[in-house]
Amino acid sequence: MKVVLQNLTKKFPNRNKKAGGEVVAVDDFSFEIPDGKLVGLLGPSGCGKSTTLFMICGLQKPTSGKIFFGEDDVTDLPPENRGVGVVFQNYALYPHLTVKQNITFPLENLKGADKLTKQEMSDKAYEAARLVQIEELMDRKPNELSGGQQQRVAIARAMVKMPKVLLLDEPLSNLDARLRLQTREEIRRIQRETGITTVFVTHDQEEAMSISDVIVVMKDGEVQQIGKPQDVYDDPVNLFVAKFLGTPPINLFDGTVRDQTLYIGEDAVLPAPGVADQEVDVGIRPEGFLLGDDGALCCALTGVEVMGRDISVVSTHEHAQSKTIRSIINAENKVDADAQKVRFSLKPNKVLLFEKQTGKRLCLQ
Amino acid sequence: MERNKAKGWLYLLPAILFLGFFMVYPLIDVFVYSFEEGYNFASQTYQGTGIYNFSYVLHDTYFLQAVKNTFLMVVITVPLSTGIALLISVGLSSIKPLRRLFQTVYFLPYVTNTLAVGLVFMILFKKTEYSDGLVNLLIHWFGGESVDFITGPYWAKMFVLCFYIIWVVMPFKILLLTSALLSVNQSYYNAAKVDGTSGARIFRKITLPMISPTIFYLVITGFIGAFKEYSDAVALFGTDLNAAGMNTIVGYVYDMLYGDSGGYPSYASAAAILLFIIVLTITCINLLVSKKHTTYV
């Protein structure tokens, strides 16, 4: 089932009544979520991603705009008639019910012709439990489960009615690092197995990049960029997106373009064809540095961190916008940790230029 | 380790001394009194020991009346006050504007003096030479016969007493229940809503279990409080409760000690011990029942 968001806008009355006015949580959001895909809504907290999710599931009504599931306009439908399954950030498992009772809870609400017998409910609950591999936990109470297990129960409960769309709100934020890795693969597997159109919200770019088919980067209620994770990473439309994606984060420098050439300080580091002369923000991905004695960029070396496959070279530069520059280099290169200076040449496709004022990407020709 | 232990006891000492002198010692003393027959305060003498005091109290019609009154009151006021408080709290927590105002209004009886409230109830219910009371006026309005609530038939007096008690104990219950309701995480309701759960089912299957600890706390303390009822009856019917036929167990104990027919510490002690046994039994039953039906999260 594809989901179409059309000019979706949500305004809240300002919480500070004296200031008055409205806060725009989501601003004119249009997007088509293709059938059977896993979409990650990504952005810093307060960017409107959860609000968007709640509008899709029907817990919040958009101020304007429309939502379609397939060809049906569901904008005015209450959540229960939309056929959505939701996994809440804190899982919202009913603490007084067992895992099985939690999973069957949505089924017990069915009325009329859809009403199920006890046996059918039980069968469906076990089917959902099998999907997330928690069959042996059915008689436990939620507080007897680990965070990861609770997460699975929440997913099972969301899936038991076979929803058309599965929505997950910060599904991994309550888990520790190791479980997070496991669970995100789990979510990916479940989504693949069932083919359910899935939207999940996260502020963790790594999480979003690693499992999404498509990511939507949001900021202050506005969509910044939509695309495949790799495309968005390689080709960000503005400085915000470039900064938000990638660990370690992109390194930023103050630069100047003169005569189709990019300068950082007085060093001409790269040709910049097609860019008018101006001051620019230069973003260099950590993997965009190459060691070389004749490299154009000269930095003061502060440390070398060995990580096995890679080494991470930490250095400083007077025109860098952050205290340190972090570059990731293949471990086959040897770096003398006692050296004062280190010289880098740059991979052109890993160097991104942005307009100083607007933060817009300047594309090289 | 030893030093720490000594320190611990030192810190506990004030509380232990206080509780020992004013709670434990009197309790034991009452227990002793209750078996001493014909104890005399002035001479501090008694005639013998045995269970005569209990037998006397249990055969005293005033005591039996007091027990009947107390039980009736407990059975009526505890469920009703808790139920109504729950209704009002649910109402309060589902409105947004004016919630504060209503919360304050409902809490007012709690900070109002019992005797002052008693006076107001007199005006509402009492029949005098000049007026029949506000409630009787209303009854007249609807074409009913006027009833003497304060000195009239037993059921009318019991009605006023229960009405009064419910009104007095409600604010505290509303206060606790509203905060319990508000502390239920909104995401449970969101989850239930997404699954299409009806309002009644949400209340029964989610809200009630989530606030069950508070409810059972209120029921248990409600039972204990109602069994110890005395001052409210005095506020309505005056100090001679035996004459009014509205005495309570605690009232009986008081009368036996200091009332017009008082001066019998042995009987008073026996009655007090009986009350203690009743309250203990009921509380244990309550705890057993609550264990089955309460979820502590």
Give an overview of the whole structure:
The complex is a heterodimer of chains A (365) and B (297). Chain A has 365 residues and is α+β, with helices and mostly antiparallel strands. Chain A has helices at 49-57, 99-108, 118-131, 147-159, 177-194, 205-211, 229-234, 239-244; strands at residues 3-13, 22-33, 38-42, 64-69, 72-73, 84-87, 165-169, 197-202, 214-219, 222-227, 251-258, 261-264, 267-271, 278-284, 289-291, 297-306, 310-316, 325-330, 341-346, 351-355, 361-362. Chain A folds into two domains: 3-244, 3-Layer(aba) Sandwich (Rossmann fold); 251-362, no CATH class. In chain A, the strands form four sheets. Chain A has a six-stranded mixed sheet with strand order 6-7-8-3-9-10, sandwiched between helices. A six-stranded antiparallel sheet of chain A has the order 13-12-11-14-20-21. Chain A has a five-stranded antiparallel sheet with strand order 15-19-16-17-18, with no helix packed on it. The radius of gyration of chain A is 25 Å and the shape is elongated. Chain B is mainly α. Chain B folds into two domains: 1-50, no CATH class; 61-293, MetI-like (MetI-like fold), CATH 1.10.3720. Chain B is globular, with a radius of gyration of 24 Å. The two termini of chain B are 35 Å apart. Classes of the chains: A alpha+beta (365), B mainly alpha (297). Chain A binds chain B through residues 57-59, 78-81, 84-86, 88-90, 92, 94-96, 105-106, 109-110, 143, 157, 161, and chain B through 185, 187-188, 190-198, 201, 205-206, 209-210, 212, 295, 297.
